[in-house]
Amino acid sequence: MLLEVEGLDVGYGSSTVVHGVSFHVAEGEAVAIIGSNGAGKTTTLRAIAGMLPGSAGRITFDGDEVLGEPTHVVSRRGLAYVPAERHLFPGMPIHENLSLGAHPDKPDPAQLARVFELFPRLEERRNQSAGTLSGGEQQMLAVGRALMGKPRLLILDEPTTGLAPKLATEAYDALAALRSDEGLTVLVAEQQVPLALGLADRGYVIEDGHIELSGSAADLRGNPDVQRAYLGIS
Amino acid sequence: MNPAVIVDGLIGGLQLGLLAVGLTLLYGLGGILNLAHGQIAVFGGIVGAAVLDADLGMPAAAVAAVASALALGLVLDQSIMRPVYKRRGEERILLSLLVTLGVSFVIDGVLVWRYPSEALTMRVGTGGAVDVLGITIRQGSLWASAITIVAIGAVIVFLQYTRTGRAVRSVIEDETGAQLVGVNPATVRTVIFGLSGALAGLFAVTQSMTSPVTSSSGVSYTILALIVTVVGGLGSARGALLAGVLLGVVNAVSAAEIGSYITAIILLAAAALTILLRPAGLLGTTR
Fold this sequence. Notes:
The complex is a heterodimer of chains A (234) and B (287). In chain A, 38% of the residues lie in helices and 27% in strands. Chain A is α/β, with parallel strands linked by helices. Chain A has a domain at 1-75 and 184-234: Rossmann fold, CATH 3.40.50. Chain A has a 6-stranded mixed beta sheet, with helices on both faces. A 4-stranded antiparallel beta sheet of chain A has the order 2-1-4-5, covered by helices on one side. The N and C termini of chain A lie far apart (36 Å). Chain B has 287 residues and is mainly alpha-helical. Chain B has one domain (3-277): Orthogonal Bundle (ABC transporter involved in vitamin B12 uptake, BtuC). Chain B is 72% helix and 4% strand. The interface between A and B is medium-sized, with 29 and 18 residues.
């Protein structure tokens, strides 16, 4: 199992937001965590990325315990986290943002070419500062930067944040292309459930910090509760 | 106005920039405003003076000054600054001010107490003056400027074109983003604390080529560096250089036209005016 989360409790200060969450991601899979705003998706992902300490449970990546490791160590293991706020380097041009994605190694020209192939817009604007890009372009850059480190697992938090519907669909098309071309393992947290279930093999539904439901993407799409709560079908 | 005054100002300004670069980088890396910066420079200068006293020669004294200031920077980073790094945001800025202010008192106190009359003076070249395009410049000033320009150039190349330099800038731009790509901010901070110390030590060396660096000059160096940093924009290395040169000229011109008693006031006024007109400084980024 590439990523395994078992009985994870995470919170801020004394309040626990995520309670006993367990799920896993196998190599080559795409897994979606769906749920409404404030359900605990981001908190869970931040704990995996080493940005929040967990108060109970285990997180193993490729068999190694990673819960409690600082973010930069987790990142160097090949677990790339793209937060919803993206955290780009706004004053630096696109090409420097991408080079930093490969830190501490030298950027691999082949990987850079692949990122540019996936997001041609980034190549056109390679000398433009990240801070001047549109929301969609910033999202491309955030994903591109994460890919530069040749991650084994790409974790995306709400990749459609701030994107118009057409751009959101494009973002998911790009992720689908990444999966089919390179077999990249993806874990995505998303409020836009139809998009996420379109990409994923499996999904987990998180509500109030608990995993309420899990199953294949097709099962979840067919589930009446999911249809009512997240797909706008009654 | 005598053009030599402007040249003097440029020469002094370059050195101000050299002094301020370390301070501004450290601040950019997460709110450490090092009020002991000038004292670290003087510490290096006094170590250099001791090496000169021992008749080991000027190159050895210069190396000792830079190395000892670098080492002091690293020691501070690894010891008394650790509790500061555990804080975030404003708490960190405040605690860094208090801790480094304390460090500055200790360094000042020890130096003035143990070495009250020690001063670093380096007489480079033949000690005379040379004529450059009709302007008479002391050889010491020429050496100081040349060394400063090379050092500043090296810092810019390091920041702009090396992978470590890029990592440094990434932490200044977005610390979380830097961690996400595998940069360890603590390592970067240690590198910059050391670099900042080394540049302060080098400042003491170049300064001593034109006027003595005494054991009690620390406070005035810190204040000058702070003014330059604020005018240039906290966290901006290029801003520090630009502000250093500008303020150097302002300093020299006001000293020549009005009198040296007024220069401190004029420099502070320039800083205040900058804060009013451009709160982020000349080249600072607003955040």
